[in-house]
Amino acid sequence: MPSIRISRIVKKTRVEGPGLRYCIWVQGCPIRCEGCFNPHTWSFSGGTLVKVDDIFDDIKTVLAETPGLEGVTFLGGEPFSQAATLSVLARRVRKLGLSIVTFTGYEYEQLTKANNEAWNALLKETDLLIDGPYIQSMHDLSRPWIGSKNQQYRFLTDFYKPLAKKLPAISNKLEIRIHPDGSVTVNGMAEPLHLQMLNKLGLNTKIESG
User: What are the φ/ψ torsions at residue 18 (nearest 5 degrees)?
Assistant: First the structure.
């Protein structure tokens, strides 16, 4: 039974792509951009192995409870390091009528020219690709879900093409969750200063940024 190495899952979020989304941060990244918001997702030995069937069943449960769920987002970590397995999950998810948004530190041209069967399979199942490494010297949060000026939106299907003209009106936001055990989790796009301030509060805070 195939499994995906996961760093974290947020089952309902509005800050990791269009609409209400089920968000999966995968564990493991070979790119390791300087200034990365999620360096804890770099190690390929960290995280937790979760079966594709279990993740898919959970997505179906969330969808049944939340008809407004629009899609699933893959980020990390580097999704294309687990492309074969993610493409299997994505194919099943799209049959539910949900969209797939995939973030990657690779550039689109790298992915398409590599002649990598697994990469091609994940691209085929992706509606919106947000590509390119995070470049600290080009840091820019003026566009939604994007951290530096070099990164681009790639509308690989018609699902989100109408969104292209609406992007300037979409603002980046943070979601902060306080859990029963007192821990705090944060996700979304934030300035480094904001992340530093959260860490200085002395809370048991885990931050995952898009």
Answer: -65, 135
State how far the alpha carbon of 54 is from the alpha carbons of 30, 58, 86, 101, 172, in Å: 26, 6, 13, 20, 31
In this predicted model, what pLDDT tens digit does every residue of 25-74 receive, in sequence order? 999 999 999 988 888 899 999 999 999 999 999 999 999 999 999 999 99
Amino acid letter, 75: L
Q: How far is CA 41 from CA 33, 53, 63, 193, 206, in A?
A: 12, 22, 27, 20, 12
Kindly report the pTM of this predicted structure: 0.89
- What one-character DSSP code corresponds to residue 44? T
Integer-rounded Cα Rg, in Å, for the chain is 16
- Sheet bearing 205-208, strands edge to edge: 174-178, 184-188, 205-208
